[in-house]
Specification:
Layout (H helix, E strand, L loop, with lengths): L2 H15 L14 H17 L3 H15 L2 E2 L4 E2 L4 E2 L6 E2 L4 E2 L4 E2 L4 E3 L11 E2 L4 E2 L4 E3 L3 E2 L4 E2 L4 E2 L8 E3 L4 E4 L15 H17 L4 H21 L3
Parallel strand pairs: 1-4, 2-5, 3-6, 4-7, 5-8, 6-9, 7-10, 8-11, 9-12, 10-13, 12-14
Antiparallel strand pairs: 14-15
Length: 231
């Protein structure tokens, strides 16, 4: 597909994915992610032709207008949807695949100052929740989901879900349909509920048989919980 065909896809994907849009005119005034992405595609072509300073100036002005910081050397695929977009940062050596969804406040950042591949690779179909930070030369596999405000510093396998600080894989081998970002489990809540339930059992320890069964059940749940965090 040609350059302008890819840009047309950038416009069309918002119409397909965002239920909030009511008119095509809104694309030009209410979608800073789209504006930044179109400017990036122009700047990326200029950058690759050797006019690096001009490309950086274009993206500098774009950042001022949209509050989205994309380095023109980054590689971004087709049908990428940057929703709301405010505060999104995509570093120089970052690579973003096709059909990726990125929410506001996401950073695809580096962890060193050397002239090497120092930013993440985001494979096709990934969804990155608001405020997530993905740092370093790591790979987020196809159709993976990153929970909001997570800090990811290790690879995430394809079809998996990672949440937390630092992020842990808590759902493995999920299908694309079982990937709603608003249905990710709350691991802190799960741990609190385990501790609270255990306290209740210990406070009612007069019924030893029932308590023993309850504790055994909770220990199995807790062991399963810990196992899910080892990835």
């Amino acid at each position: 597909m040609g350059f302008w065909g890819i840009i047309r896809e950038d416009f069309r994907i918002i119409l397909e994915k965002d239920p909030a849009i009511n008119s095509k005119i809104e694309l030009f005034f209410n979608y800073p992610g789209l504006i930044a992405l179109v400017h990036y595609r122009i700047a990326h072509r200029i950058y690759n032709r050797g006019f690096k300073a001009i490309a950086r100036i274009i993206m500098g002005l774009t950042g001022f207008l949209t509050n989205v910081d994309i380095h023109p050397a980054a590689k971004i695929g087709r049908r990428v949807f940057i929703d709301h977009a405010i505060g999104v940062v995509i570093g120089e050596t970052a690579e973003v695949g096709n059909d990726v969804t990125i929410y506001q406040g996401v950073s695809l950042g580096g962890t060193n100052l050397n002239k090497v591949k120092r930013h993440p690779t985001i494979c096709d179909g990934v969804v990155i929740g608001a405020g997530a930070k993905i740092l370093g030369n790591i790979v987020i596999g196809e159709n993976a989901k990153i929970g909001a405000n997570s800090v990811v510093i290790k690879d995430v396998p394809k079809d998996c879900t990672a949440v937390g600080i630092p992020a842990k894989v808590i759902i493995k081998g999920q299908s694309k349909e079982a990937s709603a970002i608003n249905k990710l489990p709350d691991i802190d809540k799960a741990l609190f509920e385990y501790l609270f339930k255990r306290m209740q059992i210990l406070e009612n320890a007069h019924n030893n048989d029932d308590c023993k069964k309850e504790i055994e059940y909770l220990e199995k749940l807790y062991a399963s919980f810990l196992e899910s965090l080892k990835a």
